[in-house]
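During the reporting period the student researcher (J.K.) took over the structure-prediction task from the postdoctoral fellow and processed the backlog of single-chain submissions. One of the processed entries is reproduced below for the supervisory committee.
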Amino acid sequence: MRVGLVCAHAGPVGTDRTTSASTHEHVARVAAELTGLGHEVRVYERREDPAAEATVTVDGYRIERVPVGPSSRTPTAPLVPYVPEYGRWLSERWSGGDWEPEIVHGHFWLGGLAAANAVRATDIPVVQTFHSLGAEQLRHLGRDYDGPGERIPLELALTRAVDMAVAQSTDEVDELTRMGLQRAAVTVVPAGVDTTRFHPDGEAVPRDRKPRILSVGGLGPRHGHDDLIRAMRLVGDVELVIAGGPPAGELANHAEARRLGELARRHGVGERVRLVGAVPHEQMPAWYRSADVVACTPRYASAGRVPLEAMACGVPVVGYAFGGITDTVLDEVTGRLVQTGDVRGLGITLRRLLADDAGRFAYGHAAVDRVRCSYTWDRTAGALERLYERVVRRRRPAEN
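J.K. obtained the following structure tokens:
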């Protein structure tokens, strides 16, 4: 099958990816796995560097860089006016060349809009993965939501233009049906984990004898580090390491890093909270292995990638019970779930788990088994392959 994967931003192919897996990491793995299954895959992304090659082959699939919009790395909002032009470029490419996709899969809302624009005069079906939803972010983040004003209405319009939406959690299914999609037009295909990289055996970042809690994510109110810092008063003499944000050398001048440091000092835990900044993604397994527990307390989590990576490394997870975290972490099996915003419950749960060596050992083993059985990239690609075949059969005219 010929598959076109459409993104709106340039990918980090050939560069270090930092801390948590990105949308492009997801697309790259899907493309590689589908290629391994025998499909002909092309990934379309915006050409941000004029010196970059227009086309390049990676892991057997082809990346085509679309010359639309500014020739520089650009935030999402300024790219919205270029979506129609992006769609026209794709349409001309597919109609005037020797390669036309049998199915197109849009990623993130801008990629989906470009894909839907490109195929609207054809019989080519469109599958869409949003990765996050503006309406859901707005509900959870309130005043801290900083998405473009056009995002929510355009995502709503996009749900009416696609053949099938791919959700990454059951919470996202509920959100998409609230937006008007029929339940039969939404399917759950969670992200996978690279279990050749994320596994329990291997090096760990050096640490002292003090128990360690690890939190992974960018620096900002949406990532929930505030709650963890407040909960530390109830946990005892342990270390909280926060990985994410700008590089370590820039933390001193980063407003949010300074605010979190001041919050820790105000709550009497300043000596026990350490920010390490951005970590290359390939180094994250060693950080996970160095932790006794990984805490996941964001105010918004669509996919639950961090708990999956931690679980693949054999580390139990304590997280807020919503979004992708609820799907991935089995309460009292691979970790513990706490009601969102319950700082006291979070602190007590972390303290009890850190004092329970046997419990952490059992949770860690169950976590590895769960990831290897249900969350590998080959399973993700296999589910997408079956979905593509079903959607194409439904769109394809009946043969005489």
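The committee noted the following: The domain at 212-374 is CATH 3.40.50.2000 (Rossmann fold).
J.K. will present the remaining backlog at the next meeting.
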